[in-house]
Amino acid sequence: MSNHGIFVTTVNCMDGRVQIPVNEYLIKKYNADYVDTITEAGPNKILAENINEILVNSIKDRLICSVDLHKSKVIAMVGHYDCGGNSAEKDEQIIQIKNSMKLIKNWFNDVEIIGVWVDKNWKVNEL
């Protein structure tokens, strides 16, 4: 597949309230043309716990597709306020985001991994 434009990638919640602000933030920050969006309910919890092999491998396989085929150079690991898939409070979710970033970094050393918290005003806060 040819690369037509700059891609970045998110591992984001399926909650539609967080996708637009995160995508807009990444497009602006990285001058990206496209955002590959990998969604699950509470993905920061899924990757931090690293227990559900099926979901972890599914996220990993989709990241490989984004990095290998679209040459994405940035992966944003996202957590957010009022998450239905992850009822943990902000402080715990931030720890989960950081642990998820370590796991993703093990999979991709030459890709920039950032952590993002989306607050109750749907504002993106980079960790």
What does this entry look like structurally?
The structure is a single chain. With 127 residues, this protein is α/β, with parallel strands linked by helices. It has a single domain (7-126), classed as Beta-carbonic Anhydrase, Chain A (3-Layer(aba) Sandwich). Helices cover 46% and strands 24% of the residues. The chain contains 4 helices and 5 strands, in the order E-H-E-H-H-E-H-E-E. Strands 2-1-3-4-5 form a 5-stranded mixed β-sheet. Helix 4 (90-107) links the parallel strand 3 (74-80) and strand 4. The longest helix has 18 residues, at 53-70. It starts with 6 loop residues before the first strand and ends with a strand. The mean pLDDT is 96.
- Give, in spatial order, the strands making up the sheet with the most strands: 2-1-3-4-5
Overall structural domain count: 1
In the CATH classification, which architecture applies? 3-Layer(aba) Sandwich
Output the CATH class name: Alpha Beta
The largest pleated sheet is described as: 5 strands, mixed
- Average of pLDDT: 96
Task: Tell me briefly what this model is.
The chain has 127 residues and is of the alpha/beta class. The protein contains four helices and five strands, in the order E-H-E-H-H-E-H-E-E.
Describe the protein's topology:
Layout: E1 7-13, H1 16-30, E2 34-40, H2 43-49, H3 53-70, E3 74-80, H4 90-107, E4 112-118, E5 124-126
Parallel strand pairs: 1-2, 1-3, 3-4
Antiparallel strand pairs: 4-5
